[in-house]
Amino acid sequence: MSHTAHIPSHRKPRRSASKLAVRAGVAGGVLSTLAMAGTASASPAEPVAETTLEMPVLNLDLGAEVSSAVTQAAENTRLAAVEGELNAQEESARTGAAAEAKQAKEEAQKKADEEKKAKDEADRKAEAERATRSSERTKLQSASGSDSTAQGSGTVTAPATGSAAAIVNFARAQVGKAYVSGGTGPNSFDCSGLVQAAYRQAGISLPRMSQAQSSSGTAVSLSALQPGDILYWGSRGSAYHVAIYVGGGKFVGAQNSSTGIVERSLSYDKPTGAVRVL
């Protein structure tokens, strides 16, 4: 063993190359800085202009924008729903109006059909009653013998005078005009409307309906008729038809819509009874 082995070595440890490089770089930088400082101190000082760059400020409130977008979307949805509901209501209204119009048309047609049916039934009934009266007249004529001839021709042959003449002349002047239910002249009449208008020529006011007219004045026999007497068909007080006796075994009456106002013989449709108002 060496006699110096127990003495610690004073040799410095070897530095790594990387550390040496770092140290060299630091030293170089220091020296460069010092050199620049010396140069700066030797040169006259020049003012250095400072430039400040103003950056744009972005004011982005993303929360508010999102909220506004959500609100707008909700409003658009609500408006679309309202428009859809209005369209549905409009379509429903159109459908309802069409249904109501169809129903009204059907009801009007039904009413017209019912009125036509009622009119046809009334005409049929009148024809049946006339046929019945004709049959009854035939039986009465067979039973009464010669008296039926007097009833068929009437017992008055003298021309009408005074108020009776005014009534008869007016009634005959209306022959050929139309029969209209409810008609009171001057262009059309129903049976009681004609009798009422004829008596008005003599200054006499009669009730409007045939039932009341058949109850006016005094009842007279069909064998003792005089011009101007009111003939009626049916029961007195509930007659369904009236006419005016004009003499010579004839009467003038507004018969029906088919014949209009006509002058006929009593044998055409023998009345039930007669009343005298004059």
Approximate strand percentage: 5-15%
What's the average pLDDT?
Answer: 77
CATH class of the domain at 152-276: Alpha Beta
Major sheet = 6 strands, antiparallel
* Structural class by sheet pairing and helices: alpha+beta
Alpha-carbon distance between the two ends: 191 Å
CATH superfamily of the domain at 152-276: endopeptidase domain like (from Nostoc punctiforme)
Please tell me about this protein's structure.
- The structure is a single chain.
- By secondary structure, the protein is of the alpha+beta class.
- Among the domains are: 85-144; 152-276, endopeptidase fold (from Nostoc punctiforme), CATH 3.90.1720.10.
- The chain has helices at 17-42, 62-144, 146-153, 162-173, 191-200, 210-213, and strands spanning 178-179, 188-189, 218-220, 230-233, 241-247, 250-256, 260-265, 273-276.
- Strands 3-8-4-5-6-7 form a six-stranded antiparallel sheet.
- Helix 2 (62-144) crosses helix 3 and helix 4 crosses helix 5 (191-200).
- The chain is rod-shaped and about 115 Å long.
- 18% of the residues are buried.
- Mean pLDDT is 77; it is low at 140-157.
